[in-house]
Design a protein that fits this description.
The complex is a heterodimer of chains A (290) and B (162). In chain A, 36% of the residues lie in helices and 24% in strands. Chain A is α+β, with helices and mostly antiparallel strands. In chain A, the strands form four sheets. A five-stranded antiparallel β-sheet of chain A has the order 4-5-10-6-7. Chain B folds into two domains: 4-80, Roll (Ubiquitin-like (UB roll)); 90-160, DNA polymerase, domain 1 (Orthogonal Bundle), CATH 1.10.150.120. Chain B is globular, with a radius of gyration of 16 Å. Classes of the chains: A alpha+beta (290), B alpha+beta (162).
Chain lengths: 290, 162
């Protein structure tokens, strides 16, 4: 179908975007358009004002300093996927991005768009959760910082007011030798994930867990971090016993059923993916220490 | 009250200036305003890939972009793949050699996806080719001919350039 009419704006500076968001009602912000485009075509959304961010020059970019990585909200998924420094520092980004949409959609899709759209099956919100990222949000009066674990309010609803814009995401990559893994399951490559698990894992010299982060996407209405379980696993081997704990935590997630599949099935798949992720992250953690 | 804009887009080296509604998708602009119907509309929500074109050299779905966003940009459609003298792009020749098409509906999107991909990856594996065409749906061929064609085109380009 075709979108309903809207007033189109394509400002070139950030302050104009923020002024529009403050002054106009029923606005939608256009980033990569790979999620919003379909919604407009289906008339799932019918904004009065469409604010195109693609001509604003200072919202994209990858900057890496001592201990922090900052990704501008308009940074294309393709750029993040292919950045060599990011691949070295936080390879899980590159790995998970291969599951995000398709080759052509990653040329336009952005990290900010993915985070703001917050589809339950989206990979990038799960990765930001793994790193305890900080999301920076601006409006015409100022800005605020939102920790990743406070970003997802409910189904496709981020912690973002109508007059606010996500400007960038910042996180600290793990510096100690560690392993990573991101595994996802969908019926066809590029389909929305039925479930996905991300894992970062550091082991000590005895092979015991020193630090671990686990997040799950696709299973419930928002991405889920297994914080309690992570704390319980410190000092233990990443073996079947550890897996049992992880599986228990996954069973406890409130899972969504939809036309595609049931919540129970999603959890079953997530348990299998967690096993694979833990195994792969362990292998990589061991190699990283050699 | 219609929201109108006048845009200038370079398509296959030719300049098109039109005044259009801002809600017009790039796919509809290419097809209806510019008469270039090689670009196909399959799903209108970005999953089938039939609408794929090159925007400033990158493969992009034109059904989920607005024409106004292409103002000042360079677009290549399937009509612009062959050289001006009519010589096929290596990917077109390879599709012909390998039964890469039957009804032809997905074909423009496949050609545009694969040609962009081959500009970035000169020696892809079969696995990588399958992954890159995962965003283009074909109901006829079963994909093998398309995969074979893309691998053959990659070899041809490595040997003789574009």
């Amino acid at each position: 179908m075709k979108p309903s009419s809207f007033k189109y704006h394509n400002p070139q500076i950030r302050s104009e975007v923020l002024a529009l968001l403050r002054e106009q009602e029923n606005c939608k912000v256009l980033a990569g358009g790979q999620s919003l485009g379909p919604m407009l075509n289906f008339r799932f959304v019918m904004p009065d004002h469409l604010i195109d961010l693609n001509r604003v020059t200072d919202l994209d970019g990858i900057s890496i300093s001592d201990s922090k990585v900052r990704l501008g909200a308009m940074t294309r998924q393709k750029s993040i996927e292919r950045d060599e420094s990011l691949r070295r520092l936080c390879p899980i980004f590159s790995e998970s991005l291969q599951w995000v949409g398709h080759y052509a959609t990653r040329n336009r899709g952005t990290i900010g768009g993915s985070l703001s759209h917050l589809d339950p099956a989206a990979e990038l919100p799960g990765i930001c959760l793994l790193y305890d990222a900080t999301l920076r949000v601006e409006n015409a009066s100022g800005h605020r910082l939102v920790p990743a674990n406070e970003w997802s309010v409910s189904f496709m609803t981020p912690n973002l007011e109508a007059d606010e814009l996500l400007t960038d995401v910042e996180f600290s990559p793990w510096t100690m030798p560690h392993g990573h893994a991101f595994v996802e399951f969908s019926r066809r490559h590029g389909d929305f994930a039925i479930a996905g698990v991300g894992c970062l894992l550091a082991l000590d010299r005895s092979g015991l867990i020193k630090r671990i982060a686990l997040s799950v996407i696709g299973v419930s209405s928002t991405p889920f971090r297994l914080t309690g379980t992570e704390n319980d696993l410190i000092g233990y081997k990443p073996d079947d016993n550890a897996l049992a704990y992880i599986h228990q935590a996954i069973d406890g997630i409130e899972a969504s059923s939809d036309a595609q599949t049931s919540g129970q099935y999603r959890k079953r798949i997530a348990r299998v993916l967690a096993s694979r992720a833990l195994e792969q992250a362990s292998e990589r953690a061991i190699s990283a220490m050699q | 009250m219609k929201d109108l804009r006048t845009i200038h887009v370079l398509i296959n080296g030719m300049s098109y200036q039109r005044t259009i509604e801002t809600r017009m998708t790039l796919a509809d602009f290419i097809r209806h305003e510019c008469g270039l119907t090689g670009t196909h509309v399959g799903c209108e929500h970005g999953v089938c890939g039939a609408c794929t074109i090159h925007l400033n050299g990158e493969a992009v779905r034109s059904c989920i972009m607005f024409a106004v966003q292409a103002d000042g940009a360079e677009v290549t459609t399937v009509e612009g793949l062959a050289s001006p003298d009519g010589k096929y792009h290596p990917i077109q020749q390879a599709f012909k050699n390998n039964n890469g098409l039957q009804c032809g509906f997905c074909t423009p999107g496949m050609l545009m996806t694969c040609s962009a991909f081959l500009r970035e990856y000169s020696n892809p594996s079969e696995r990588e080719v399958r992954e890159v065409i995962s965003g283009n749906i074909c109901r006829c061929t079963g994909y093998q001919g398309i995969v074979n064609a893309t691998l053959e085109a990659a070899a041809a380009i490595r040997k003789g350039g574009l």
